[in-house]
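[[Sequence with tokens]]
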Amino acid sequence: MPEDKNRATAAAILPLVGGARNLTSIAHCMTRLRLGIQDRSLVQHEALKALPAVLGVVEDDTYQIVLGPGTVARVTPEFERLAEQARSTEPPPEPKAVAPAAGPRAATSPSVPEPTPEAAASLATAPPGAAPPATAEELAAQGAALKARQKSRNATPVKLFLRRIANIFVPLIPALIGCGIVAGINGLLTNLGWLPSVVPALAAIASGFMSLIAVFVGYNTAKEFGGTPILGGAVAAIIVFPGIAHVTAFGQKLAPGQGGVLGALAAALLAVRVEKWCRNGVFPGRTHSRAWGRVRVPEALDVLLTPTLTVLVTGLVTIFGLMFVAGEVSTAIGAFAGWLLAHGGAFAGFLLGGLFLPLVMLGLHQALIPIHTTLIEQQGYTVLLPILAMAGAGQVGAALAVYLRLPRNRSIRTTIKSALPAGFLGVGEPLIYGVSLPLGRPFITACLGGAFGGGFVGLFNQLGDTVGSTAIGPSGWALFPLVKGNQSITTTLVVYALGLAVGYLTGFLATYFFGFSRQMRTDLNHDNHDSDSPRSPGTTTPAAGTPAAPAPSGTPPHPEGVHIPG
């Protein structure tokens, strides 16, 4: 039975991550089981990747096991139940002695071998003239070294804050996808004139979540920043309350929903600060405060006064300040996005599609998530996501070119074959960190493919054929059910499909003709499995043939992983 299969998968994973007592948190996103690990030396990476249900693993701030959409949502509850049962009987874990690794491994597909610490260390410190990596193990090790080196530069306050903002919106993605698809079905039935009695019901199903999304954003914001989640939801609910239409602020009548998710985010952040001040007497992040700041609610009255003051103070600030300001910002975002694509669609699409992967590596792509959500709330779809999705198309095209350019390198070709299906569906990490980024030049040519694909979609936006997405998260072929625009569904789907084709083709051609120097092809195009001796240690590559440096001092995180772009 399916339930037994999911339970068996959970039971197989649990001991391989060090047991229940080695877990500090359990969660999941669209495709991954995300685990907080107390001692990562207890995790058996190779055994995990060998499990039939596991598509790959990613090490970030959490340990992420890629199970795929649908599967992860069924395995996680079983995993949580097994972990809870095991905690009552399992002894505390004993750390095992391991050699220190050079850093977290890059995201890999199941067939990419585990890089040894020695390999990762040697590749991390390789001189500029060293020969490029020739096997999947060397590529994985170099990807791990790059990722570890860049991750150490990623823990800036701004990037950590953006990651927390992303954590607020990622749990909302399943509802956005479900409601988006229902909205698409409803639009199709409306256009065809079918089932008129069902159309209003489907409209209610599709719109119900979006009408209250501010409440969910407020709840998740308070939860993420250490406040009481329900208080965050309560202050955000003020924004969507119909009676707010009777309130005047700044000489204008307020409108239900004014400020949207940005207003809810700001209101919940303020609520967390007020709540913590009531309990601690010091605003979060401060170790000292003025005399008035050290006043706190007495413990005996905490249960009455803290929630009351939190809702009252935050509510007044929200009504007479945040709603108006956030409303103006939301309107400006929508107007700017429309103006940008209407007047410079091709150029804007070229820049967005080409720079998205570097933004991912810098950790700055997470700033786009509230913008996507704001556009969906205002217009019913985000016009930015289909353009950004072209970055993944460029990666796929580049990988196909690498596959054909290196016919004798069985190791790299095996990695590409195993990672391509996920790449077509918008999961790009195995191709990025397992192939293109360690090789250098193919990463740049893949970005060029994304740029041309984005420019193509942007051009049609400029010509009046808007292409958008009713949800965030999916990419590549997985985005087709969510595509929506201002023209017929057929026209919109064709434009998006042609954009992907342009991204595939440009990424392929750019990589095939410009992704390798002659020396790189000489070094890489041989089968290491059949070679009895490694390459001569003195083999060097001219400066023009060395792999390009990774994206500028950024870091490749992902949270949601991004999926590309997600």
